[in-house]
Amino acid sequence: MQQCLDLFNIADEQFIGFVNKVDSYSVNIFTTDEEKLRRVNVNGYVIMHTSDPNTRLIGRIERVVRLEYEPNNYDDDTDEEKNNTNNDITVNALGTLKGPGGGRETAKFTRAVENLPEIGAKCFLLLGGYLTLFTGLIADETAKSKTPLTLGTYTMASDALAILDGNAFFQRHAMVVGSTGSGKSWTVAKIVEQVAGLTNSNMIVFDLHGEYEPLSIHPHIKRYRIAGPADLDNPNEDVLFLPYWLLGYEDMLALILDRSDENAPNQAMAFSNAVIKAKKEELTKEDMQKELETFTIDSPVPYSLDDVINDITELNEGKVQGKNGLINGPFNGKFNRFLPRLASKRSDRRHGFLFSLKEEQLAVNYLDYLVESLMKANTKENEGVKIIDFSEVPSDILPIVLSLVARLVFQIQQWSDSSTRHPIAIVCDEAHLYLPNRLAADAAEARALAHFERIAKEGRKYGVSLLIISQRPSELNTTVMSQCNNVVALRLSNQSDKNAVSNLLPENLGGIQDQLPTLGVGEAIVVGDSCLLPSRIKIQEPEYKPNSGSVKFWEEWSNAENEQNLSLAIKNLRRQSSANSDG
């Protein structure tokens, strides 16, 4: 209660001036006191009286201007002009602070701007102990659960924890953006390790460069690797295959079909018919009658790619009876480019996780194993957070592969019983590499975008959340970005990137973009549904630090003892395996 009284009865020394202009969401304060003006800092916070004595308006200082003018009146005694000053402080309204009463036992802050101040209303600075009290109130409002999401401390009040609403953060998707070296990976690691500490956590991290491997030391984090060329013959337990039969029809065509080929429509039709036939044969062999009655070409049913190729080869070489003997069939030669292209994909060991499958990956129950590995929530026997290392996946098919995992997660959630459905979050690291703008997307990226856009728009209904990580927000898909209602923005200096972030902010917070280039390493602006107050936060160091530190060129060049093992690198290059020894 004392905290409420203090906030509603601020000492006179915090007074800075009176309201002299009120707009839809901005307020102007004037003062003639030079000492008071010196205490006012841009991006600081103020509290203003309103017509309701039990309500105060909270605002952020956007601009401070010192105006000096010469009036037309003269002193009768000296006949000299008097110089006057009128200083203007522009404040953006952020929310309303309501005192006890009306069913409230304590003060409560809300983002709604319900009462604007009247002309002549008093305005006070939120500094020192008052600021700490206010941030503590924000933390109390946000910390609804026993285990709130904490990123660090407020820059404006270093002794106050910056607490986010974990429900709102993941329910409405989130985005972490920042230039290289700004502390982006540490921020992600801080979030991931907190999720891992929850009793029934469930999260998948797309790790494109293997930088989150150190987090697997955490007892509730499991790391998997997508099979590389060196894993195809004797894979370890942490190696995952993503069989081609999990790809949807359009996804498979984006991978193997050249749309510029004049025979592409015939190739697509023949491939479709051959796949349906192969899946039907597999379901019949497995005596899966119910599935046989309802399956479609996109149903995740194993099928023999050899059988599909044999059927298409027969069409390509087919002959029919003519008047004077056998002549070429209607599809003869139509697949002369398609078949070698498919054979090339299958023979490329970099694509082995898709095509070089053993009997267990071609079994119907492999899907059960894969889903259990990816989506099983945290228990005594299972780790809730799964890091998937995609570092050995070729970049040209990376979007298709990542969207395969995302689509599988979404479909399992979609077809789960709503009463037992368990929420899951997908962390999309380096998202600009596979979630580009539509105009910049090729065929494979366009198919991947379709899946991620659907998750962004519909995922909340089925308990699927996206956490988008990127150093180039200006290159991200606008549909996905527009669905991210929480933004953690670290230092950004590129103008196009700053504009992309500012487009996601409410109109009265647009000035925040001007702070982005000035943020220190590990500092972030947090805006969105998960925080009651747009805040500048100093991110705490994660306990498990990712391998994302920038190389210290000058220091390394100055160190004569560090010699690079180039011969080992050459062996790894030839083997297409990041082995740690030269054995």
TrEMBL record:
Record keywords: ATP-binding, Nucleotide-binding
InterPro entries found in the cross-reference section: HerA-like (IPR008571), HerA_central (IPR002789), P-loop_NTPase (IPR027417)
A GO molecular-function descriptor: ATP binding
Superkingdom of source: Bacteria
Domain spans labelled Helicase HerA central: 150-408
SUPFAM superfamilies the UniProt entry points to: P-loop containing nucleoside triphosphate hydrolases
Pfam families the record matches: DUF87
Protein name: ATP-binding protein
Native organism: Paenibacillus aestuarii
